[in-house]
């Protein structure tokens, strides 16, 4: 057995890449990958728009002058306060925050494409569960599971797109992907308003689940793809213990136990008629086997925790990454609260007849145009981290001014044009901010970079901002003042991104991860969709 292992490893890169080309899906092109991921991303954010729409979220029952109204939607059926309603909007973030780093770590030992399929399955079941909820706590648990399902996709989709996008259009492709965020939220407003108003708020969640089901099936059926910096072929699994120092130590530590198990079993076969030994040996073997299994599992967990700690330390030492995410946190706090409370604030301040349609229309147009413009402009400027920070800070500063000014108008006709320009500028940041997250770290850290970015912007951004804005409104009872205070937070995001312009930044996206992947597997760093020809790739 030892001779066979040595011969296979000495075969070199050719041995480790055998069969990889055959595994490439012939029908699967980078553009099809982009389209599929964009639709999935849009459905994720349709769900966020749905839960915020007046048709699904509804309003509490109220009494005035001896006359009481029953209320509508989730808030009316479960009699939720504004604070509880805000907590509900952020509940899915709990699952997202816990699961994102876990999926990023699992990507090193399991195929990332299959992990996306698992996450989408959880998402589909959880959204259907939201439609079956019977009280505040049941729908809160389902919303948490929606976050778990979304976590795998959020962490792993962007690196797949970055790997397979044409070199001269990477930011534009990311812009197309992140364009689905405002588009999905806006469609969610409209979809939730129509379905919730004409059918029932529960039907809106069931519809989401049905729409996602085909992509769940694809995630498990089609041949899996690989990320740059990761390998998951049979050779890696078969020889992993010999090639990985940590697993070498583990194998050595298990050797005495395995030897004891073998000796006991061998002795038991030699003396099958010895009744005394027959009774004692199985118990010894069973005890040793259980101890070996527990010890092996514990060491694997500790190894993974150690790797996670090392990666996190390297990530946090990257000042460019830290300042980028810090600005993103304050930015997302505003955008998250806008997306959830926007229709209610607009309806109260400007007495909009159909706030869902109004905010949905503004968001979808400005979101599409702004996000795409941000990506294309950065590509034209020359996609560098420094240029990305310049675009981020400039767009955020001007966007904050226009949005703040919009809420100062008492007329709806003054609000709409200023708020539209403000959202156009604010959404131009989506592609540049994620471009920085992907390119300021080495390839093998990209899933963790995206996961921790997602965790940070939610746990410190829109998770607390929605209930805080709800509590602030409960205290002020003035949506205009609440909106102005919220919008001013965008200037803090501008401060972080403007400061980062002056940092020394290095694009590390093309660094090979020699320290993370065994030498015999480095030839597998190219993703399956890459044909090895940059010019041909760009022409697509």
UniProtKB/TrEMBL annotation:
Transmembrane domains' residue ranges: 87-106, 113-137, 173-191, 203-222, 321-341, 357-379, 391-416, 483-503
Subcellular location: Membrane
The protein's name: Major facilitator superfamily (MFS) profile domain-containing protein
GN (gene name): LOC123189838
Superkingdom of origin: Eukaryota
Organism: Triticum aestivum (Wheat)
Family: Belongs to the major facilitator superfamily. Spinster (TC 2.A.1.49) family.
Classification via InterPro entries: MFS, MFS_dom, MFS_spinster-like, MFS_trans_sf
Gene3D superfamilies: MFS general substrate transporter like domains (1.20.1250.20)
A GO-annotated cellular component: membrane
Molecular function via GO: transmembrane transporter activity
Keyword Iron tagged: no
Major subcellular site: membrane
Region (Disordered): 1-22, 513-540
Keyword terms: Membrane, Transmembrane, Transmembrane helix, Transport
Domain Major facilitator superfamily (MFS) profile: 33-507
Topology versus the membrane: Multi-pass membrane protein
């Amino acid at each position: 057995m030892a001779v066979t292992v040595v011969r296979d490893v000495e075969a070199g890169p050719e041995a480790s890449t055998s069969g990889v080309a055959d595994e490439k899906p012939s029908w699967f092109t980078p553009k099809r990958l982009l389209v599929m991921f964009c639709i999935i991303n849009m459905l994720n954010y349709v769900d966020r728009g749905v839960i915020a729409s007046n048709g699904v979220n509804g309003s509490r029952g109220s009494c005035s002058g001896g006359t009481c109204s029953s209320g509508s939607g989730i808030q009316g059926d479960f009699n939720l306060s504004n604070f509880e309603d805000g907590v509900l909007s952020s509940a899915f973030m709990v699952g997202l925050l816990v699961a994102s780093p876990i999926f990023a770590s699992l990507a090193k030992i399991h195929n990332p494409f299959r992990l996306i399929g698992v996450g989408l399955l959880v998402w589909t079941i959880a959204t259907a569960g939201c439609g079956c909820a019977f009280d505040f706590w049941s729908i809160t648990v389902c919303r948490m599971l929606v976050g778990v399902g979304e976590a795998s996709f959020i962490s792993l989709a962007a690196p797949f797109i970055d790997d397979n996008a044409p070199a001269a259009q990477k930011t534009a492709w990311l812009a197309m992907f992140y364009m689905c965020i405002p588009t999905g939220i806006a469609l969610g407003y409209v979809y939730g308003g129509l379905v919730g108003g004409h059918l029932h708020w529960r039907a809106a969640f069931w519809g989401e689940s049905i729409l996602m089901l085909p992509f769940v099936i694809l995630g498990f059926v089609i041949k899996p793809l690989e990320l740059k910096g990761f390998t998951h072929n049979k050779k890696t699994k078969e020889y992993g213990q010999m090639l990985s120092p940590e697993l070498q130590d583990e194998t050595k530590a298990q050797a005495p136990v395995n030897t004891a198990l073998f000796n006991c079993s061998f002795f038991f076969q030699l003396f099958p008629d010895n009744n005394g030994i027959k009774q004692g040996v199985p118990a010894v073997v069973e005890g040793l086997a259980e101890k070996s299994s527990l010890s092996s599992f514990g060491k694997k967990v500790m190894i993974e925790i150690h790797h996670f700690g090392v990666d996190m330390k390297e990530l946090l030492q990257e000042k460019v990454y830290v300042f980028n995410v810090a600005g993103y946190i304050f930015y997302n706090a505003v955008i998250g609260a806008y997306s959830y409370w926007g229709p209610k604030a607009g309806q109260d301040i400007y007495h909009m007849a159909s706030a869902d349609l109004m905010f949905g229309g503004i968001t979808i147009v400005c979101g599409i145009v702004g996000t795409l413009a941000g990506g294309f402009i950065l590509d034209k400027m020359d996609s560098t981290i420094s240029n990305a920070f310049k675009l981020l800070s400039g767009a955020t500063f001007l966007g904050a001014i226009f949005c703040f000014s919009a809420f100062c108008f008492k007329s709806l006709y003054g609000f709409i044009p200023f708020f539209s320009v403000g959202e156009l500028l604010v959404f131009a940041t989506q592609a540049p901010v994620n471009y920085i997250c992907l390119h300021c770290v080495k390839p093998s850290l990209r899933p963790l970079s995206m996961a921790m970015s997602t965790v940070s912007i939610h746990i410190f951004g829109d998770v607390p901002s929605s209930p805080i804005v709800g509590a602030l409104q409960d205290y002020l009872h003035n949506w205009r003042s609440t909106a102005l205070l919220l919008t001013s937070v965008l200037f803090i995001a501008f401060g972080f991104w403007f400061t980062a312009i002056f940092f020394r930044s290095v694009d590390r996206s093309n660094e090979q991860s020699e320290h993370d992947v065994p030498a015999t597997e480095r030839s597998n760093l190219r993703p399956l969709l890459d044909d090895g020809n940059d010019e041909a790739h760009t022409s697509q």
